[in-house]
């Protein structure tokens, strides 16, 4: 499963790059609007800091305007994936862009039918909002499993990208469902590496045992310098 980051936090992006985990970075209008730089500068920075893809969302709701924005974004870099809301004229826009060879990501997904339609249109990625789906009282895990089964049954190329992942458990829901990608905010990404009291206690026992034997404590093979 690919890991994408849904953040402008550069240290977090660098960390994922160093580990070789990062497939790309996603943005949305809220993220770009919260930045202290113009959108063009932010996007250039995100392209420079990591070698993967960069997902950028159109802000128009009418198809013709979406297409104009998408083409300008695609012309900026071949690594940009254009995010389009999976509603109304957005489906028409994604179909046209995919025919032009511009990769798209269907966003603002709350139902399996949106993913099924994205699959029929050959959309590259489809991003259900997991945390918001759960907040709406729906079963996000069931949606992932159902949608993945539909895409596999018909051999469609669309990759489900779990989005709005707010916990390690939701990340594991993505893994259990066998979907192709998940995009994580910086806080959720850091949760994946966090310790627990049980882990801390086990490591402390190892440390105490090691220091309790003069032969191991003085071993040159395990010197810290």
List the helices and strands and how they pair.
Layout lengths: L1 E4 L4 H10 L2 E5 L2 H5 L5 H11 L3 E5 L5 H14 L3 E6 L4 H10 L4 E6 L2 H10 L3 E4 L1 H6 L4 H14 L5 E4 L5 H10 L3 E4 L1 H6 L5 H15 L2 H4 L8
Describe this structure in words.
The protein has twelve helices and eight strands. The chain is an alpha/beta fold and 225 residues long. It has two domains: 2-194, Alpha-Beta Barrel (TIM Barrel), CATH 3.20.20; 195-225, no CATH class. The chain has an eight-stranded parallel beta barrel with strand order 1-2-3-4-5-6-7-8, surrounded by six helices. Helix 4 (63-76) packs across helix 5, helix 6 (112-121) runs parallel beside helix 8 and helix 8 packs parallel to helix 9 (168-177). The protein is elongated, with a radius of gyration of 21 Å. The two termini are 37 Å apart.
Which descriptors apply to this entry?
225 residues, alpha/beta, 8-stranded parallel β-barrel, 8 strands, 51% helix, elongated, schiff base, Transaldolase_AS
In short:
By secondary structure, this protein is an alpha/beta fold. The protein is built from twelve helices and eight strands.
Described by strand count, sense and barrel closure, the largest sheet is: 8 strands, parallel, barrel
Tally the helices: what do you get?
A: 12
> What portion of residues is helical?
40-55%
The CATH class name of the largest domain reads Alpha Beta
CATH topology description of the largest domain? TIM Barrel
Strand order of the largest sheet: 1-2-3-4-5-6-7-8
Give the tally of β-strands: 8
Label the structural class. alpha/beta
Strand content: 15-25%
Mean pLDDT: 97
Distance separating the two termini: 37 Å
Radius of gyration: 21 Å
Instruction: List the secondary-structure elements in sequence, H or E.
Output: EHEHHEHEHEHEHHEHEHHH
CATH architecture label name of the largest domain: Alpha-Beta Barrel
Compute the number of structural domains: 2
What coarse outline follows from CA principal-axis ratios?
elongated
Pfam families: TAL_FSA
Keywords: Schiff base
Protein name: Fructose-6-phosphate aldolase
């Amino acid at each position: 499963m690919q890991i994408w980051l849904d953040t402008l936090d550069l240290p977090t992006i660098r960390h994922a790059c160093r580990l070789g985990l990062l497939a790309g970075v996603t943005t949305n209008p809220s993220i770009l609007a919260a930045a202290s730089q113009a959108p063009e500068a932010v996007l250039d920075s995100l392209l420079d800091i990591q070698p993967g893809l960069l997902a950028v969302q159109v802000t128009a709701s009418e198809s013709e305007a979406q297409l104009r924005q998408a083409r300008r974004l695609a012309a900026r870099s071949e690594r940009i994936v254009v995010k389009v809301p999976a509603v109304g004229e957005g489906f028409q826009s994604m179909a046209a862009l995919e025919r032009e060879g511009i990769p798209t990501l269907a966003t603002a997904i709350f139902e399996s039918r949106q993913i099924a339609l994205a699959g029929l249109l050959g959309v590259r990625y489809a991003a259900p909002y997991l945390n918001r789906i759960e907040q709406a009282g729906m079963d996000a895990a069931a949606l992932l499993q159902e949608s993945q089964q539909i895409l596999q049954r018909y051999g469609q190329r669309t990759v489900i990208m779990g989005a709005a992942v707010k916990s390690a458990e939701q990340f594991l829901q993505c893994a259990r469902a066998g979907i192709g990608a998940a995009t994580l905010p910086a806080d959720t990404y850091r949760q994946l590496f966090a310790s627990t009291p049980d882990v801390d206690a086990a490591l402390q026992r190892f440390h105490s045992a090691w220091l309790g034997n003069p032969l191991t404590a003085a071993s040159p093979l395990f010197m810290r310098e």
